[in-house]
Specification:
four-stranded antiparallel beta sheet, Immunoglobulin-like, 1 helix, 192 residues
Length: 192
């Protein structure tokens, strides 16, 4: 009996020690606050694109997150056309991620700078959907479970002409209200 109790006690202690050291134990989520990711700049004329900005104090892991437009029938994020960021995609602290829109029959990427916009030194991603310049349209940042954690309505009522080379952007980056700006994809926003 004493041997059985000793064996059970040793088994229990071993199980506790192994679970404390196990790499299978749940770990804290890498992203504790997805609200630090902001839609920062949007271009819906000519080259269509959007830019995300990290307002947080550390890099943000976008792995499994997605960008989606809105289903016109349901008003919900259109997950069937969502552009999902591949594993390992990081949004640097105070940094930008560029997503080109309306890229039919493409994969998300990432793509090198030469496959993105002229004059942009960073790479980009491709999304299948596009954004209407003439009417308000919601864009969504979806977590890996397709829950909308952030959204923005592309402002259709900004005072600029289509094709004028202007975008809707936040000044200051990531936190300000949308206004019309000179296009600065992948870089700090500047008023027109």
């Amino acid at each position: 009996m004493r041997r059985l109790i000793s064996a059970l006690a040793l088994t229990a202690l071993t199980a506790i020690a192994l679970s404390a050291c196990s790499s299978d134990a749940p770990s804290a989520p890498a992203n504790v606050n997805p609200s630090v990711v902001a839609f920062n700049e949007i271009s819906a004329a000519g080259d269509e694109w959007l830019e995300l900005y990290n307002t947080g104090s550390s890099d943000f892991d976008l792995s499994g997150y997605a960008i989606a437009d809105t289903d016109k029938t349901t008003g919900e994020p259109r997950t069937t056309k969502a552009m999902r960021f591949p594993t390992g995609t990081k949004l640097p602290r105070a940094g930008f991620v560029l997503v080109l829109l309306g890229k039919s029959n493409s994969t998300p990427g990432p793509y090198s700078a030469d496959a993105c916009l002229p004059g942009v030194s960073a790479g980009c991603f491709y999304a299948l959907f596009s954004v209407s310049q003439t009417r308000g349209e919601a864009l969504h940042l979806l977590d890996p479970n397709n829950t909308s954690v952030s959204n923005v309505i592309y402002p259709a009522n900004l005072d600029f002409e289509a094709g004028a080379g202007l975008t809707a952007c936040r000044i200051p980056n990531g936190t300000g209200d949308f206004t019309s700006c000179g296009a600065t994809p992948g870089a700090a926003n500047a008023a027109e």
